[in-house]
């Protein structure tokens, strides 16, 4: 138990190292939405807030399309890492081509809809329709940059380019805020100015990210020659379930908006848009968590690593859940100060409706955290039924069905309560699928995940060793030899396996643990399955590719003798830097 917890700590450190940058990707749009909302409500008027709310379904569609490409390409990326790294150039290029083509088509259709009057399907009365049309035209200019930018951000995260993604995110926020003031206050362009400022900030974001690829520094290259167009159906098949929730949210928004207008009026829509625009920033936390989890799930599945799969989900149920509960408590406590960012007159109905939004809506977040991550998990491991049913219910069916009953009864509060009821329904679905898969009541996290028995190596087929100092390295060889002997592996191969791992672990400790102020650990895993012995060493030290040193033919290069020995003994040695961690796999 003590040894397996080392891998858990490594994964926990990796998870929270990646999390801030994944949150940033979502926060960009969310904070831009808040800034737009503040300028809309304070500089233009309440009707402008309604326009932003009415644009919501289109926003969900764009997120859904982008999410399909991001999640599908990431899952494919994780699989090719294990067997065909060169193929990733195809995944990268095909993903960008698809994303740009769909974004360009969407921009064109939005413009056509405005000029032909087709946008009346969202709202027919003036001045709401005029403000929505102006806002859509402003947003349409930046849609290609927004969608392609999200793809580049995802791949840069895999290449561990934190500084660039951070700089691009901050630049995007600053550009949007400055231009909002220019286009709304200094040059009164109304809702068109709001949309235009967001578009220009999206292009600035894309340019900063694209420069890394244009200068040729990236590991993955954009190349039509490398394209394998049969990757298109694979990306779509793997990614559609991840996008399904966001896609059906578009229809949910249309239905919910209609119910609010019918039973509450435009004041209810303004209240919901205000609270929802701020909570979109908070939603970046669970969505960012699910983005990190998806990457880690994909790589664990590509490596057939059962333990890491469980540990990743354990992080969600412990550390992540504690964070979400703390955030929700703060939102409830500060509901009124948050409301006053948008509306200051406490006698107006919109004020109390918004306060209730901040007090009730956040309560669904801890339950949604579970739903989001089980959707990602089901998508990554291809549990097809759960990966479709859960997003459909979470994205539309649960909230919509509950709202049909609750909004007429409780008005706008009925919508807020419906979101909580939806979270309970989704958790029940996860539990039911686990019960059906196991054919018994699930008692542990592994039971709820219902990992196929054939997946990865069980506890009896592997050994995990933690190395935190050079003193622990000398024990590695003996433990591996003992494990190999228990599996009936011949003494020569057992000895070589122990020798290889002791040599490589010692190399990591000697050269990788020299960073001052950082805690390091080496996680060693030995798996014997299907008559094949596989050794894996994972660490969080600086990047180090031993293959470059194995090629050295300098007889006086004593430091590389051990590495060359390992490469001469092993059947296959492969190195990857995955999400900022070194992973060396040796097959004997």
Q: Which structural class should the secondary elements be placed in?
A: alpha+beta
- Trace the largest sheet across and list its strands: 1-2-3-5-4
How would you sum up the global shape?
A: elongated
Q: Give the rounded overall mean pLDDT.
A: 80
Radius of gyration: 26 Å
Distance between the amino and carboxyl termini = 27 Å
What percent strand?
5-15%
Largest sheet report: 5 strands, antiparallel
Number of helices: 21
N to C succession of SSEs = HHHHHHHHHHHHHHHHHEHHEEHHEE
State the low-pLDDT regions, or none: none
Estimate the helix proportion, in percent: over 70%
Q: Find the count of extended strands (DSSP E, 2+ residues).
A: 5
Tell me the number of structural domains.
2
General description of the model:
There is one protein chain. The protein has 588 residues and is α+β, with helices and mostly antiparallel strands. It folds into 2 domains: 2-445, no CATH class; 460-587, Histidine kinase-like ATPase, C-terminal domain (Heat Shock Protein 90, 2-Layer Sandwich). It is built from 21 helices and 5 strands. The chain has helices at residues 2-44, 46-54, 56-83, 88-116, 128-140, 143-158, 162-186, 190-214, 231-263, 266-302, 306-333, 335-339, 349-360, 365-381, 384-410, 412-438, 445-449, 470-486, 491-512, 546-550, 561-569; strands spanning 462-467, 522-529, 532-539, 572-578, 581-587. Strand 4 (572-578) and strand 5 form a beta hairpin. Helix 15 (384-410) runs antiparallel to helix 16 (412-438). The model has no long low-confidence stretch (mean pLDDT 80).
């Amino acid at each position: 138990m003590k040894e397996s917890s080392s891998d858990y700590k490594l994964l926990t450190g990796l998870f929270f190292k990646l999390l801030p940058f994944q949150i940033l990707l979502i926060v960009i749009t969310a904070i831009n939405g808040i800034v737009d909302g503040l300028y809309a409500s304070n500089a233009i008027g309440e009707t402008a807030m309604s326009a932003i709310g009415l644009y919501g379904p289109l926003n969900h569609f764009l997120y859904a399309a982008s999410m399909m490409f991001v999640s599908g390409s990431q899952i494919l990326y994780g699989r090719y890492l294990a067997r065909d790294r060169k193929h990733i150039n195809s995944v990268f290029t095909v993903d960008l081509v698809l994303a740009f083509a769909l974004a360009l088509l969407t921009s064109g259709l939005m413009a056509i809809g405005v000029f032909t009057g087709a946008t009346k399907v969202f709202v027919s009365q003036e001045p709401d329709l005029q403000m929505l049309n102006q806002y859509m035209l402003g947003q349409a200019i930046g849609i290609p940059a927004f969608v392609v930018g999200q793809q580049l951000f995802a791949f840069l995260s895999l290449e561990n380019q934190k500084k660039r993604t951070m700089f691009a995110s901050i630049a995007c926020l600053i550009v949007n805020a400055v231009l909002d003031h220019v286009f709304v206050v200094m040059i009164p362009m109304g809702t068109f100015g709001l949309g235009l400022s967001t578009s220009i900030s999206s292009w600035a974001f894309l340019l900063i990210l694209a420069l890394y690829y244009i200068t040729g520094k990236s590991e993955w290259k954009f190349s039509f020659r490398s394209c394998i167009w049969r990757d298109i159906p694979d990306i779509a098949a793997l990614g559609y379930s991840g996008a399904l929730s966001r896609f059906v949210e578009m229809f949910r928004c249309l239905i919910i908006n209609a119910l609010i207008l019918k039973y509450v009026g435009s004041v209810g829509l303004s209240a919901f848009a205000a609270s929802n625009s701020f909570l979109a920033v908070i939603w970046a936390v669970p969505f960012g968590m699910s983005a990190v989890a998806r990457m880690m799930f994909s790589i664990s599945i590509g490596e057939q690593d059962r333990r890491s799969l469980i540990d990743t989900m354990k992080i969600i149920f412990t550390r992540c859940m504690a964070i979400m509960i703390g955030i929700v408590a703060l939102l409830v406590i500060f509901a009124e100060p948050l409301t006053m960012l948008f509306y200051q007159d406490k006698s107006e109905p919109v004020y109390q409706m918004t306060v209730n939004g901040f007090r009730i809506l956040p309560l669904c977040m801890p339950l949604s955290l579970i739903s989001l991550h089980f959707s990602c998990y089901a998508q990554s491991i291809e549990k097809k039924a759960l990966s479709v049913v859960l997003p459909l219910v979470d994205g539309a069916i649960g909230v919509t069905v509950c709202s049909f009953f609750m909004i007429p009864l409780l008005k706008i509060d009925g919508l807020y309560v419906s979101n909580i009821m939806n979270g309970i329904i989704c958790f029940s679905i996860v539990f039911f699928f686990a019960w059906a898969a196991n054919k018994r009541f699930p008692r542990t996290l592994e039971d709820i995940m219902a990992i196929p028995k054939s997946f990865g190596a069980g506890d009896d087929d592997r050994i995990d060793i933690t190395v935190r100092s050079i003193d622990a390295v000398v024990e590695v060889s003996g433990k591996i030899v003992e494990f190999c002997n228990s599996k009936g592996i011949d003494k020569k191969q057992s000895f070589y396996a122990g020798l290889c791992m002791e040599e490589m672990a010692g190399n990591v400790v000697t050269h990788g643990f020299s960073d001052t102020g950082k805690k390091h650990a080496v996680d060693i895993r030995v798996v014997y399955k299907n008559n094949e012995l596989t050794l894996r060493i994972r660490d969080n030290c600086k990047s180090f590719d031993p293959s470059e040193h194995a090629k050295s033919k300098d007889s006086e290069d004593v430091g590389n003798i051990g590495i060359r020995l390992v490469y001469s003994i092993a059947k296959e040695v492969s190195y990857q830097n995955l999400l900022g961690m070194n992973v060396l796999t040796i097959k004997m």
